[in-house]
C-alpha cells in the first residue's frame, strides 16, 4: 500500500505554557485534518508585555496522510 503524506505549518498560542500551546495547535488541526500521524516543533517564542510573559507561541508542522 502506497501512502502520501502532507505537511502543514501552524502556530499554536497559549497564555499558560509551551506544552499548552502545542495542545491548542494540535486540537485545532485535529478538528480540520484527518490522518494526522505526527507533529514537529520548529520554534518556540514568547510574547512579552510590560516585563511579563503574555503568551507562549509554538510554530509546528502537522504531518498527515492524504486519503486515497
Sequence-ordered SSE layout with sheet pairings:
Elements: E1 5-14, H1 18-32, E2 36-49, E3 52-65
Antiparallel strand pairs: 1-3, 2-3
Quick overview of this protein structure:
The chain has one helix spanning 18-32; strands at 5-14, 36-49, 52-65.
Helix/strand order, N-terminal first:
EHEE
Kindly name the structural category: alpha+beta
Low-confidence stretches are: none
The CATH superfamily title: Flavin-binding protein dodecin
Q: In angstroms, what separates the terminal alpha carbons?
A: 10 Å
What is the CATH T-level topology?
Dodecin subunit-like
Q: How are the strands of the largest sheet arranged? A: 1-3-2
Describe this structure as you would to a colleague.
The protein is of the alpha+beta class and 68 residues long. The chain has one domain (5-65): Dodecin subunit-like. It contains one helix and three strands; from the N terminus they run E-H-E-E. It has a three-stranded antiparallel β-sheet, with helices on one face. Strand 2 (36-49) and strand 3 (52-65) form a beta hairpin. The chain is elongated. 10% of the residues are buried. The model has no long low-confidence stretch (mean pLDDT 95).
Amino acid at each position: 500500500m502506497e501512502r502520501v503524506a502532507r505537511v502543514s505549518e501552524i502556530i499554536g498560542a497559549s497564555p499558560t505554557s509551551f506544552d499548552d500551546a502545542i495542545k491548542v495547535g494540535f486540537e485545532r488541526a485535529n478538528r480540520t485534518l484527518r490522518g494526522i500521524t505526527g507533529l514537529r516543533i520548529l520554534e518556540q517564542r514568547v510574547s512579552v508585555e510590560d516585563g511579563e510573559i503574555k503568551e507562549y507561541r509554538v510554530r509546528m508542522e502537522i504531518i498527515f496522510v492524504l486519503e486515497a
